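INTERNAL AUDIT FORM
Audit reference: QA-55
Scope: verify that the stored structure record matches its stored sequence.
Auditor: D.O.
Record contents follow.
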Amino acid sequence: MVSCFGVYVIQLRSCEDKSALGALYVGSSWYDPSERLRQHDEGYATGSAALRGQCRRLRPELYLDLPWQWDRQAIVRSERSRADRLAQAGFHVRCDGRIYSVRPALRAPFTSEELERVGEQFEECIRGVIASAKRHLAPDDIARLLRWTPVEPSIAELVSVPNEYVGRFSHVDEAAVQHLTDRIFQAPPGAPGHVDSKAGHAPAAQ
């Protein structure tokens, strides 16, 4: 029986490279990514022993732009290419028994074009940030939160922490994140892609 294969990306719990945006594992499989996450975290007997207990969550915004393929060799090339691109953007990446890492001076964030390919995931993260906000967030606040890293000033006054949506686009060019955030909020209510900046935000007690 011929199976279709897809790439997936898992965020790991710890990262030995303190200059990196975080540690990732990039793989490919015919299993659904959520099932593969479970297998890796439990040390499933397909090269996953080293990941046992180290898997934090899937990072769909880092792989959902890649199509599933019937050709196993093509998907392996796609997997390795994505691992290399994520390393260029600043992550410490494990893939197919190799470590992909790029020195800070040589890193290149994802572009606006690359961000557009995962627009639905970007909008989902915006909604998640708004839902966890402690006050009304302006587009500038949201763009800052989506690109936030632990070396930057605390954002605890803006959102509840820890927060699974904060920092999810730290690998993307700052101007690209700001531009897409602004565009989403400028869309007319009811239009595709429109997000209400007040949705999910509980007003402060009077």
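Auditor finding: record pair retrieved intact. The beta strands are 6-12, 23-29, 55-58, 92-95, 98-100.
Action required: none
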